[in-house]
Amino acid sequence: MSNLNADEYHVHGIARDVDLYRAKQIEEPTASLDMVDLLRKGQEYEDYKVVGGIQLGIYITHVPTLSEHVNLNMELITLNNFVQLAERNGCKRIVYIARLMDKPYIKFIKQVLEHSGLTYTIVLKNLAIGKGSVLDKYMHKLINSKYLAYDTDFAKIKFNPISALDLIRWIYNVDWEKNFKNEIIEIGGAKTVTIQEMFRLYKKTLYPNSKVQSVKVPGILMNMWFKRLYRINKEDLIEFKRLMSMEYPIDNSTWKNIMLFSFTPLDEVIQFDQ
Question: What SUPFAM superfamilies does UniProt report for this protein, alphabetically (predicted)?
Fold first, then answer.
């Protein structure tokens, strides 16, 4: 929300609790922000109107995971209400953005979008990197500790982290009137790295003098080590491991032959998006 407005666009965002949303943000939103509850609806939902209409509706997955029945049902309800709200404001184009770990459940999302009759695109992305991201918080915690506990299998997971700002630029560069109609596409950053390589890049870029020592720990003991060493609570660790469990390198073949786009180098993202 803090980097969405552009000279040729005006962005309108909605949140169930605007004050709570603002309190959690690192930067001040540049988009217009209104209180609308997509789950319970209510008067704000019924009265919501964008002057001039909506050209493109962007919905970003907001539940922790689609793999749990309650979360999935909540997502389907709020997505359906979002689609109706957008359509009521003249929108005929929807972009749904989700994480790779949501891929096994995207068929349910697709059913809602197909039933709406609107033109849609489902975008599955690699893990985000940059200020406020789960990955960024995780890396800072690890490097600022005396010891680095790791297990080999987890350290070797490969993925293509993508800058949140690059994702926004990419959205702006797509011609949504012509491309990716009723398709599922995947997007990741330009470089494939392991979690171990990501850690080393963070350390080299931001903490070159850090004396952190690596300690190999069996996977079964990782939760205990992380809780004691880094004060990462169990829920946050589970969330990060859940995200990483479904990560894999994305070659961007579903879109790179249609449009030109250059990604920000990872070391620059780490250095400047803090």
Answer: NAD(P)-binding Rossmann-fold domains
